[in-house]
Each structure stands twice: as C-alpha cells, then as structure tokens.
Amino acid sequence: MTDTLDSPTAAQPADGAARPTERRTRRGVPGGGLLIGAIVPVLLLGLWWLVTEVTGTFTAIQLPAPQAVLTAGIGLFESGDLFEHVGISLQRVLIGFGIGAALGLALGSLLGLSSIADKLLNPTVGAFRAVPSLAWVPLLLLWVGIGEDSKVILIAIGAFFPVFTAIHSALRHVDAQLVEAGRAFGFHGIRLLGTVQLPAVVPSVFSGLRLGLAQAWLFLVAAELLAAAEGLGFLLTESQNNGRTDRLLLAIVLLALLGKLTDTLLGVLERKALKTWA
After folding, report:
1. What fold does the segment set 65-276 form as a domain?
2. 101 in helix, strand or coil?
3. What is the average pLDDT value for the chain, to the nearest integer?
C-alpha cells in the first residue's frame, strides 16, 4: 500500500511531466499572439483619427481621415476597379517572385555547393546585386517594352538576390562533418543536397524567401509607377496626379495588407517545412 501511495504515477506526475493545468497555462489564450500584434495598428488608427478629426492637425488634402479612405475604398469596390488593381498587382508579384525565387535557389545552390562555380560567378553576381532597382527600368523598357513581361522581370530581379544570397551563404557554411556523414551513408550529388544539405539550411532558405517576397512588393511599385495602366502602383500615381490623397493612402494600406498576408502564408509554409525537414 505504501509503495502505491508513494508512486509518482498514482499521486502525481513523474518529474518532467507537465500536469494538464500546466499545459493549459503554457498554451495561453487562443489567438493571444494575434491580439497582441493588433495593439499597435489599433493605436496608430486611433492616432490617425485623432490628428485628423479631433485636433485638425492635418488638412483633408495632407492626411484624410480614416473614414474618408474607407469611403474611397468602397467607391472603388463598387465600380470594380479595386479588384482589378489588387488582382493585377498580386498576379505580377506572385509570378515575378516565383521566377526570381526559383532562379535564386538554383544559382545559390550551384555556387554554394561548387567552389569552382563560386569563384567563377560570385563576383559577377555581386556586381549585378549592387545595381539599383530603377537602373534596370530603362533597359527593360527598351528590350521588352511596357507590357507585362518587363514588370514581371523587374519583380523577379528584386526577388532573386535575397534568395540567392541566403542559400549561397547558408550552403557555404553547412557543417562539413554533417556532409561527410551523409556521404558515408552513400548520399552524393542531388541526393546529398536533398537529404542532408537543404534540410540543414531550411531556416536560412525561408529567411531569404521572405526577404525576396518583400523585395518583390517593393519592385512592383517601382515597375507600376513608371509604366502601367492598372495596379496599385498605378493607383498611387493616378491619385497623386488627381489630388486624391484618400485613394493614395488606400493604395498604401492595401500594399501593406497584401504584403503582410503573403508573408504570413510563407511563414505557415516555413513552419511546416521546419517540422518536416529540420
């Protein structure tokens, strides 16, 4: 009887085992992280309303009130222009990011795994990386024209370099003992890359992908500001020319929301990849 009472399984959990109440405490409130993250945007929205509607610090031309921006968004939604601008910009970013990220992964893997390729190509890639984004625009317009291709290529250029830099640097610093262990198990070439080396650099790869995605949105605005008839960048330019600051702010807010949404989706993929490979 004494042994039964003193047994950790009968009276209390064994050392290191979390009680049900402790597990609930550690999990916290469902959606708590989302609520905490919403604090600053809500405060900024309240400050925006305060300096426009209450104190009148800014005029309607300088900084329209939040409800004015919302009204402008409703007007564009009812006319169908909002879906057109958002849809074409999102399409350009996804296609350009996909192309740039794929090329960055391929070339970064090549230079990260091959010392000869690294010595041969890395100085040239580094030189192109230093070229400002807007410097490519006149050349692309001359070679490709003002159609969709030039915009997608410019976005792909923006997405390429962060992805390339991240995977190239990560693969160059993979633990040599880990690689040798993989080779000892008979892994070579593509099999070694997919089984040992890429799983070892998954966090760095997704860091590069998220930076590349952010760059893709930046390069989208550069492309649409100069040569576009639709899209959020075009909406920015048109609103500035027509004195519609409410629509201009609406375009900025939409770019921020779309950028955050796509980054969040990429973050979900990152967590799944980390569970699977890393």
Report:
1. MetI-like fold (1.10.3720)
2. helix
3. 83
